[in-house]
Specification:
This protein has one domain: Rossmann fold, CATH 3.40.50. The chain contains 13 helices and 13 strands. The relative contact order is 0.13.
Length: about 350
């Protein structure tokens, strides 16, 4: 059993009752070819095979042909129908749906920095378009994947931020376009819920690691894994003090299915791990998992008079109300991620160049 199969088996075991609630349904999934979406599709297909669910999904993607090259087994799966389109203005889709997962989000710091208005349009107009589809299928559950970014800068003296925290990003900083757009997306869902047309649940995602995580974006842990796979010394560009939490992708996927099925409409659930770790410690953990302990360098110099920045969530609500937990330790998560990439390198000829 390979890494991904073991993860999918765990998801099916933990979410068997949730999948049973979805039996025979037709789902609409946006962002189905990204990091989160790929895991949702993998687990849906696997659960279908293991539990004979008869689930079907229509998957919106901007480039079905590119996805066919990276995940041909999913592109050819008969229970999945891929529709080309932009989440902001995708064409009408035939037939009715029983549930929607809206996971389309541009994971690009560049868009935030260079064209913030584009970021707002993608996130907000995309959510509005998805809700219009949901309203035509009145009363169906909708899962919005939001973000921990909606809280704004976490006070450094706050160990873990929970869903009641009323902080917010600075609306006068264009670099917060993604943050503010996600806040507005949540408001759109709450307004639709109040109108009684849908049942939208909200998952506020924090930081993750696992197969399918892009290694060439602004995710520090992904960059570290890329360096390790390429045989380079891992490079921490900052001072290494910011604090993060990392949940494994398999755990994340289990949480999202549970929130879709059993989450309370207009209720937000933080999704992530509560185990805090600094960026420098993360680099050290990746080096250790790659079999090269200590092979990392920190370029910046920490200021001992300044408390480290934090991006760390409390998951008490998800644990107590939905019975969820993060069961994969970070060390195992890193080992599985590295093993998955190395297997792909052997089978696909992928090389991680300097």
């Amino acid at each position: 059993m390979n890494v991904l199969q073991r993860d999918l088996e765990e998801i099916v075991e933990r979410n068997a009752d949730d999948f049973a609630e979805l039996r025979g349904m037709r789902l609409f999934i946006t962002g189905g070819t990204g990091f989160v979406g790929s895991w949702l599709l993998e687990s849906l297909v696997y659960a279908n095979a293991r539990l004979a669910l008869g689930l079907r999904a229509v998957v919106l993607t901007r480039d079905p042909a590119a996805f066919a090259k990276t995940s041909p087994h999913l592109r050819e799966e008969p229970s999945l129908t891929f529709v080309r389109g932009d989440v902001r203005n995708f064409p009408a889709v035939d037939g009715s749906f029983d549930a929607i997962v809206h996971a389309a989000t541009p994971a690009s710091a560049t868009i935030d920095d260079v064209t913030p208005l584009s970021m707002i349009e993608i996130v907000v107009d995309g959510t509005r378009r998805v809700l219009e589809l949901a309203e035509r299928n009145a009363g169906i559950p909708v899962l919005l994947t939001s973000s921990g970014a909606i809280y704004g800068r976490q006070p450094p003296e706050m160990p873990l931020v929970d869903e009641s925290y009323a902080g917010a990003p600075d609306p006068l900083d264009p670099r917060n376009a993604y943050h503010e757009a996600k806040r507005l997306s949540e408001l759109l869902c709450a307004a639709a819920n109040a109108a009684g047309t849908i049942r939208a649940k909200i998952a506020r995602l924090f930081a993750f690691v696992g197969p399918y995580l892009p290694l060439d974006r602004h995710f520090a842990i992904g960059n570290f894994i890329r360096d390790a796979l390429a045989g380079r010394t891992i490079e921490v560009l900052g001072d290494g003090t910011p604090v993060r939490t990392y949940q494994y992708a398999g755990d994340l996927t289990s949480w999202l299915w549970r929130i879709l099925v059993r989450g309370v409409p207009s209720c937000a659930y933080n999704v992530g791990s509560e185990r805090t770790i600094s960026i420098e410690q993360t680099a050290a953990a990746v080096a250790m998992a790659a079999g090269k302990p200590g092979d990392y360098v920190v370029r910046g110099t920490a200021n001992p008079t300044v408390l480290p920045a934090r991006y760390a969530c409390s998951t008490l609500r998800a644990r107590t109300e939905l019975g969820l937990d993060s069961w994969t330790p970070l060390e195992d998560a890193l080992g599985r991620t590295l093993a998955w990439h190395r297997a792909r390198e052997r089978t696909d000829g992928v090389t991680f160049h300097p």
